[in-house]
Specification:
There is one protein chain. The chain is of the alpha/beta class and 129 residues long. It contains 5 helices and 6 strands, in the order αββαβααβαββ. The radius of gyration is 13 Å and the shape is globular.
């Protein structure tokens, strides 16, 4: 058994397949899941695992060169907006409807158990060298 890092075999395998420029949508339990991308659903119950926990775990495993989130998060979910701007100084904010459209281009969707609105981010993978 793996000792550290991401233990979920579906998520670990999906992350290993990502390449430069691929998109990863990390989303709350209410975000519509687009057809097409691979989906790893981590939701166990409302709030478990949280958006913050999943994001922290993914950032320990990925190189991220850009991130996009819904502008509505600033007013409706300030904690998520603060978390995202803290991690991504160049965070791009777009209307939620546009984020949903952009999410269809993601290669991977990671669904959390987060039950607060607008806890969603589309990450663009970078390279480690």
């Amino acid at each position: 058994m793996k000792r550290a890092g991401i233990l979920n075999r579906h998520l670990a395998g999906a992350l290993a397949e990502l390449g430069h420029g691929h998109g990863v949508l990390v989303c709350d339990a209410g975000m519509p899941i687009p057809k097409g991308p691979r989906v790893v659903d981590l939701a166990f119950r409302a709030g478990v695992p949280s958006f913050a926990e999943v994001l922290e775990g993914l950032l320990a495993e990925l190189v991220v060169e850009g991130a996009t989130a819904a502008s509505e998060a600033r007013g409706a979910n300030p904690a998520a907006a603060e978390l995202l701007t803290g991690h991504f100084p160049g965070l791009v904010l777009v209307p939620h409807e546009q984020l949903k459209d952009l999410s269809a281009q993601a290669h991977l969707v990671v669904r959390t158990g987060e039950a607060r609105p607008y806890a969603n981010v589309l990450l663009r993978c970078g390279v480690f060298f």
